[in-house]
Automatic annotation (TrEMBL):
<feature type="domain" description="Radical SAM core">
    <location>
        <begin position="33"/>
        <end position="243"/>
    </location>
</feature>
<dbReference type="GO" id="GO:0046872">
    <property type="term" value="F:metal ion binding"/>
</dbReference>
<dbReference type="GO" id="GO:0051536">
    <property type="term" value="F:iron-sulfur cluster binding"/>
</dbReference>
<dbReference type="GO" id="GO:0003824">
    <property type="term" value="F:catalytic activity"/>
</dbReference>
<keyword id="KW-0479">Metal-binding</keyword>
<dbReference type="InterPro" id="IPR007197">
    <property type="entry name" value="rSAM"/>
</dbReference>
<protein>
    <submittedName>
        <fullName>MoaA/nirJ/pqqE cofactor biosynthesis protein</fullName>
    </submittedName>
</protein>
<dbReference type="InterPro" id="IPR050377">
    <property type="entry name" value="Radical_SAM_PqqE_MftC-like"/>
</dbReference>
<keyword id="KW-0411">Iron-sulfur</keyword>
<keyword id="KW-0408">Iron</keyword>
<dbReference type="InterPro" id="IPR013785">
    <property type="entry name" value="Aldolase_TIM"/>
</dbReference>
<dbReference type="Pfam" id="PF04055">
    <property type="entry name" value="Radical_SAM"/>
</dbReference>
<keyword id="KW-0949">S-adenosyl-L-methionine</keyword>
<dbReference type="InterPro" id="IPR058240">
    <property type="entry name" value="rSAM_sf"/>
</dbReference>
Amino acid sequence: MAVGFSGSNGGITRNYEVISTANLKDSRFCQKSSIPMEVSYFINNTCNLKCSHCYVGYNDFNNTLSVQAWKSVFDELIAHGARTFGNVGKEPLLNWKETKVLLQYLKAKRKEKPELRLGLVTNGILLDKLKITELEDILPDYIDISLDGNRDLHDWIRGVGSYDKLMNNLFLLSESEILKKIFISFTLNKLNVLSIADVVKTVYNLGIKNILISPYVTLNTYDRLHIANEEIIKEIQKLLDGQLIDFKEYEGMNIYIKNDFSTTRDLMEEMASRNIINKNELLIDDYGVIFNKYSFNNNNIYFNYLPWDTSYIQAIRISMMDM
Ligand SMILES: C[S@@+](CC[C@H](N)C(=O)[O-])C[C@H]1O[C@@H](n2cnc3c(N)ncnc32)[C@H](O)[C@@H]1O
Ligand code: SF4
C-alpha cells in the first residue's frame, strides 16, 4: 500500500515479517529499500471531473507521453528494479485506449517477472461493461476507486450526479471477478470525517473489502475541507476502540490508513507518539511496506509507517513529461 503516491498499491502482501527498529537505523537497510520500487505515472493531465479537493487542479491537453515512450520508460524502470506501476491519473479511463495498452504491456512483463504489480486509480465514472470485461482480462493487481462519502458529500466534492453514476458502476463491478481487486479510496476531510462507518457499510454491502483512507492534503488551513490531525486521530481511535464499527457485522474487511512522509508526516508521528502506530511492533511486507496491523473478528486495520522520505528513491512519480 501507500508507501508513496500511487494509492493502495494493492495493499499489504500476504508475506510479511517483523522488522526490528534497529534495522530502521541501519543505513544498509535503508539503501536496500531505496530502489525505485514504486512508480506512479500520469497517463494524461486531464479529467472529466473538477473535484473541490483535487491537488492536481490543472488541465493540460499537451505534454503527455506517447504509448511507445511510456513503454521505454517502463522497460528502463523495470531494469532498475521497479516493481509496482500505478496509473494514477489524472483520470486513466479518459484515455482508456492508451491506459489499456499500457496495462496489457505491464501484464506481459508480469508474466516474465511475477513480482511486478500493476494498477490504476480512477474516479470510476467512465467504467462500463466493456471496460470491466477488458479489465478482467488484464487482471490488474489493484483498482483504486474514489468514494468521498454519502451522495450529498460525494456530489458536493465531485459534482452532482457523480455518486449515482459511481454506485451504478460499483454495482456492475460487484458482479465481476475483479471485485476482489477493488480498493475504495476515501479522502478524509473536515466534511466527511464522520462518514467512515457509512462508507465502510456501503462498500461492504457491494462486496468490496478494501478501503484506503487518506487524509486530505492542503496548504491552506482556512480551506473548508482542511481537517486537523486531532480530529482524524479522534475518529481513528474510535475505530480502534470499536465505537465506530461493530466488526462482528463484517468479515474479511481491510481498512488501510495511509501515511505519507512528505505530506502527512506530522499526523503519522502523532499517531506513533500515542502508540496507535507502535514502532516496537512494526512489520514489513515483500514490497518494503512497513506497517502495524490490528485484527478484529477477521477484519484488519493497517497503518503504514515511513521512517524516511521515500520520494524520488523508493517511490517516484512521472507526470507532464514531453519527449
Ligand atoms: C488525484 S486522483 C487521480 C485518480 C482519479 N481521478 C480519482 O479521482 O480517483 C487520486 C486520488 O487522490 C485523491 N486526492 C485528490 N486530491 C487530494 C488531496 N488534496 N489530498 C488528498 N487526496 C487527494 C483523490 O480523491 C483520489 O482518490
Ligand atoms: S476525478 Fe481525480 S483527478 Fe479528477 S478532479 Fe477529481 S480527484 Fe482530481
